[in-house]
Every structure is written in structure tokens, then in C-alpha cells.
């Protein structure tokens, strides 16, 4: 167990080093989400759930950051490393399969948390708001990385090569950008659509991030202030949805993920 943890940390450090050396990956993973946040913050949205439209949007943007820092990043990484036989060599070496996957997930978590910190500085600089429940935000980040890391592993198995990865990720990316409750609460949608949106993994992540940041109930459209205990109680259904998605993602990854190059 201890050896696997050490291998995972070492692989995560290697992953982060490679991201820092690759200008294209650095732009797609780190800068693109910030640009999207800037774009969303310019939308003419009035006050929503008791806060300004800009604050409401910015505190929901981490749901979209997951698409780039975790999902797209890991689909590309898993696919290219599989085709270059890196995954095959790793599997035949000392790190276990769990350590290899955990290393990639850990590096994605570090990138994602760094983006959330930058976003928090942005909100504090211009709105004077500090996060109210940092542990909830960290838990949302960890669960989100676990879900979309496993889904990324599954999608990499369906991706023939690194070039096709840009196309393979589009369905999930579009669903996240359209369905994520970034500019409006999920429960303002018509009945069936609200139910479907609420069950998607990006929605509970956005709602936990927003509630943790603002210290108010943003699992509904009310926005009432909650105590720390009240925030955690309100978050329980969202945590449950994410745990179910981790199971689903794990089953898909086990079924579809490939360690060796695809043929044909």
C-alpha cells in the first residue's frame, strides 16, 4: 500500500512536469478554463439566488474547469501513453495498475485545485468574498476528479489515437457546457430536464463548490445562508450522486480502458 502511494506521487510529479513543458497542453489545461471563466463573467446576468450574477457564474465555473483540467487532459494523456507503449511498460514494472491511475488522478487534482485557487483570488480581488467552507470545496474537487478521471479512462479506451481524442471528448464537453448550472440554478429548468441535469455528475460538483464558496444553500435556487453543519447536511444528496457516478465510472473504466495500443 505504502509503495503504491509513493509510486502514485512520483508519477503525479512526472505528469505535472510534462504539463509544464508542453505549451499546447498548458494552454488547454490551465489557460483555456480561465478564459472561459472570463467569458462567462461578462454575460449580462442579474442577481441570482441572492448574489450578483458575476459571483454566481464564477463560483460555478469550476464545473467547467473539470472538463479541461481533468477529463480532456486525462483522455489525451491515457491515449497518447497507450499508443506510445508507456502504459504497457508501466504495467509491466513496479507500479500497480491502481498506482498508475492514482498518479494521473493526483496530478489532475493538483491542476484543478490550482485553478480553483486562482478563481478564488479573482473573486476576492473584485468582489471581496472569501470561501466559507474550504473542506467542502476540496471534497467536491476530489470527488469530481475521481468521477471524470474514471470516465476519461473509459473514453481513452474508445479512442483510436491521440489525434482522435479531440473528437472523442466533444460529447462530454458539450454536455458539461450546456447542462452545468453555471449561469442559473438547475431547479429552474422544466421538470424532467431539471431531474436529468441534477443527476449528471457536473451538477452536484458545481452546487457543492458554490455552496462551499458562498456559505449558502445553492443546491436549490433559494440561496439562504446556512450554518456549517447545514451546508454539509444539504450536500449529502450531491455526495451520494457523485459516489454512484464513481461506481459507474469505475465499471466503465474496467470494461473499456486499454493498456496496450488498439489494433484495427
Automatic annotation (TrEMBL):
<dbReference type="InterPro" id="IPR013525">
    <property type="entry name" value="ABC2_TM"/>
</dbReference>
<feature type="transmembrane region" description="Helical">
    <location>
        <begin position="55"/>
        <end position="78"/>
    </location>
</feature>
<keyword id="KW-0812">Transmembrane</keyword>
<dbReference type="GO" id="GO:0016020">
    <property type="term" value="C:membrane"/>
</dbReference>
<feature type="transmembrane region" description="Helical">
    <location>
        <begin position="25"/>
        <end position="43"/>
    </location>
</feature>
<feature type="transmembrane region" description="Helical">
    <location>
        <begin position="167"/>
        <end position="184"/>
    </location>
</feature>
<feature type="transmembrane region" description="Helical">
    <location>
        <begin position="99"/>
        <end position="124"/>
    </location>
</feature>
<dbReference type="Pfam" id="PF12698">
    <property type="entry name" value="ABC2_membrane_3"/>
</dbReference>
<feature type="domain" description="ABC-2 type transporter transmembrane">
    <location>
        <begin position="63"/>
        <end position="253"/>
    </location>
</feature>
<feature type="transmembrane region" description="Helical">
    <location>
        <begin position="136"/>
        <end position="155"/>
    </location>
</feature>
<dbReference type="GO" id="GO:0140359">
    <property type="term" value="F:ABC-type transporter activity"/>
</dbReference>
<protein>
    <submittedName>
        <fullName>ABC-2 type transport system permease protein</fullName>
    </submittedName>
</protein>
<keyword id="KW-0472">Membrane</keyword>
<feature type="transmembrane region" description="Helical">
    <location>
        <begin position="232"/>
        <end position="257"/>
    </location>
</feature>
<keyword id="KW-1133">Transmembrane helix</keyword>
<dbReference type="InterPro" id="IPR051784">
    <property type="entry name" value="Nod_factor_ABC_transporter"/>
</dbReference>
Amino acid at each position: 500500500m505504502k509503495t503504491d502511494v509513493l509510486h502514485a506521487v512520483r508519477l503525479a510529479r512526472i505528469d505535472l512536469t510534462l504539463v509544464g513543458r508542453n505549451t499546447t497542453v498548458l494552454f488547454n489545461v490551465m489557460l483555456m478554463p480561465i478564459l472561459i471563466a472570463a467569458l462567462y463573467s461578462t454575460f449580462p446576468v442579474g442577481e441570482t439566488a441572492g448574489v450578483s450574477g458575476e459571483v454566481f457564474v464564477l463560483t460555478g465555473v469550476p464545473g467547467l474547469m473539470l472538463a479541461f483540467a481533468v477529463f480532456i487532459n486525462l483522455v489525451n494523456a491515457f491515449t497518447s501513453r497507450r499508443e506510445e507503449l508507456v502504459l504497457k511498460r508501466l504495467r509491466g514494472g513496479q507500479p500497480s495498475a491502481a498506482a498508475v491511475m492514482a498518479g494521473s488522478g493526483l496530478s489532475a487534482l493538483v491542476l484543478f485545485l490550482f485553478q480553483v485557487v486562482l478563481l478564488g483570488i479573482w473573486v476576492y480581488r473584485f468582489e471581496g468574498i472569501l470561501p466559507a467552507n474550504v473542506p467542502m470545496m476540496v471534497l467536491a474537487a476530489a470527488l469530481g476528479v475521481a468521477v471524470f478521471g474514471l470516465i476519461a479512462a473509459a473514453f481513452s479506451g474508445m479512442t483510436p489515437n491521440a489525434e482522435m481524442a479531440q473528437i472523442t471528448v466533444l460529447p462530454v464537453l458539450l454536455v458539461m457546457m450546456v447542462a452545468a448550472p453555471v449561469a442559473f440554478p438547475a431547479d429552474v429548468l422544466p421538470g424532467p430536464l431539471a431531474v436529468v441535469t441534477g443527476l449528471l455528475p457536473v451538477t452536484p460538483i458545481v452546487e457543492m463548490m458554490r455552496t462551499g464558496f458562498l456559505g449558502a444553500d445553492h443546491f436549490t435556487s433559494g440561496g439562504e445562508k446556512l450554518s456549517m453543519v447545514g451546508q454539509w447536511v444539504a450536500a449529502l444528496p450531491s455526495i451520494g450522486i457523485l459516489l454512484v457516478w464513481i461506481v459507474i465510472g469505475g465499471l466503465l473504466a474496467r470494461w473499456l480502458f486499454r493498456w496496450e495500443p488498439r489494433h484495427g
